[in-house]
Amino acid sequence: MTMTEDDEPAVELEARLEEQDSFEPPESFVEQANVADEGIYEAFAENWPDCWERAADLLEWDAPYGEVLDDSNPPFFEWFVDGKLNASANCLDRHVENGAKNRAAIKWEGEPGETRTYTYGDLLTEVESFAAALGELGVEEDDVVTLYLPMIPELPIAMLACARIGAPHSVVFAGFSADALATRMNSADSEYLVTCDGYYRRGEALNHKEKADKGLRGVDHEVETVVVDRLGDELNHFLGASAHDYDELVDEHAGASVEPVSRDAEDMLFLMYTSGTTGQPKGVKHTTGGYLAYAAWTSHAVLDVKPEDTYWCAADIGWITGHSYIVYGPLALGTTTVMYEGTPDYPERDRLWELVETNDVDIFYTAPTAIRAFMKWGEEYPQRHDLSSLRLLGTVGEPINPRAWKWYYKHIGGEECPIVDTWWQTETGGMMITTLPGINTMKPGSAGPPLPGIDATVVDVEGEEIVAGEAGYLTVQRPWPGMLRTLYRNDERFISEYWAEYSDTNSDDPDDWVYFPEDGAKLDGDGYITILGRVDDVINVSGHRLGTMEIESAIVGTEGVAEAAVVGGDHEVKGEAVYAYAILEDGQEPTDGMRERIVAGVEDAIGPIARPEEVIFTPELPKTRSGKIMRRLLEDIASGNELGDTSTLRNPDVVDDIVDRVGGD
């Protein structure tokens, strides 16, 4: 192919981006940023913990708090002691009272193309109606209400209705199984369930109520159920004796006025159960004051959310990202938050970019998994749409490799949008390590420095701080407002899972308590932290511990590779060897030459010790319904072990395909 003069600038740009290892935020962004003063880091350090009053000031309190932090009983830290507030009132009432009644609160896009917009006034009206209905059904303060709903507006409405009457909610991801629902309802002793008849996925109407009913058969107590009719005539459903129609309940209580219950700052706002793949699921407890203040502050400081923005976090509310950065953070700040029911590639691969253009989205926050898929599909899909409304981009859920970061920066942000690469967990409640977009230089592949007020430190196996350039274990040395308070009804597990590794568990001194998130990390000379993945995502090759994330980044850095997963497999000599599974970009062929380039890329980036024993090309990787790669299955395939249960995968057929390819492609 002959290159024309028109192609030359694009080629030069690609070369420049490939070589560049740091990026400054545009001056135009800095000038309007919510946080642009570099002194904020020093101010938070010098005034800790009272610095967190800045977060509390973003909320409206029914009764003022006294002490910012009570650390007298570590690790059971308490924030904004004796303060009282209501999360629903902070997300709705105060905005309506302050003149935002007609501002859009939620813009919802259904997969088939229908839309619904709720103003703050509309949302408050429906939340009050449903809160009144829940009260009539018997829900009282501190009762846990389970919400088993997909991405439809009734989910945030139910969350805010629960918060309004002081009933903690427990959202169960709609993609989870009936057994997962039953396990979580039994653990929480939840006697109330809000679910729906079904929802759309890739053009198909899925029967969700059938799954919910099956789950209820595994619950060991009586349950009152509310069913949202999402599908209408597409799916007839039977309610039964203890079930109620959502629309009928809301209509019956139309116009109800429900006074928000004033909750103590330390009262539980919600339970979030983490995955139960290694035992019983853990019920992470988040509280009203500290969590809401932290979600609001990080939305303000990191995502640069303003009331006049249209903001879109393309996650699912069934995960903590959706709680903090679709519902509570954005609505506490009075902005417009976008919800989408469907998948990024239905009906076409430009669906998300169509929605960005249609809604004039200012801020877009998504996962590296999605970005790698966008890369694989090709830049022609975002090029079909005007994305110039975008001001800020973000990533969440896992580390993003430099190549995907630069693709996102160029093809979605037009090199004009800062990218915040955020590290945090269900347990932290909100972002912990990331750049502040109005202040910091961005380094593709590195999350960034700890946020102001967050004492995140990388330590060695003895708990001593490492020097720049080395890898170790990520720890958080001081408490923070958004932190989990405990695991529901299991304080002992809370201590053993998160605090025992580097802490003196017999000490009353808060300085002796260190939070261990079980992630490996690397520190550079500027204090930037690169997350290397879970500490158990480590391969021990001939006595050398290799992080899977580093190897995967090297593989994806090979031209033509869209996604990769690396696992350890049994080896007679090395004990354990590196096995790589790679997905190629459209148009690329799985040749020996490509395999050699991948191996060379790993050796160049890490060294010969990390050389993959085998590179298996596959069109897909086995993933859970939440999008996480099921590495356990890949390990079993590499080692020739009997495969376990694959029913929880969203693509179980791919496993047999990969087995056929191992050693044979």
Features:
alpha/beta, eight-stranded mixed β-sheet, seven-stranded mixed β-sheet, disordered N terminus, 32% helix, globular, 665 residues, 20% strand
Describe this structure as you would to a colleague.
- This protein has 665 residues and is an alpha/beta fold.
- The chain has 21 helices and 30 strands.
- The chain has an eight-stranded mixed β-sheet, sandwiched between helices. A seven-stranded mixed β-sheet has the order 5-4-17-16-18-19-20, with helices on both faces. Strands 21-22-24-25 form a four-stranded antiparallel β-sheet.
- A hairpin with a 2-residue loop joins strand 9 (198-201) and strand 10 (204-207).
- Helix 14 (368-377) packs across helix 16.
- The longest helix has 18 residues, at 120-137.
Task: Note poorly predicted spans.
Answer: 1-6
Number of strands: 30
Spatial strand sequence of the major β-sheet: 12-11-8-6-7-14-15-23
Q: What's the alpha carbon Rg, rounded to whole Å? A: 25 Å
Mean pLDDT: 91
Please state the overall shape, judged from the principal axes of the Cα atoms: globular
Distance between the termini: 29 Å
Total number of helical segments? 21
**Largest beta-sheet details:** 8 strands, mixed
Estimate what percentage of residues fall within beta strands: 15-25%
Secondary structural class: alpha/beta
Fraction of helical residues: 25-40%
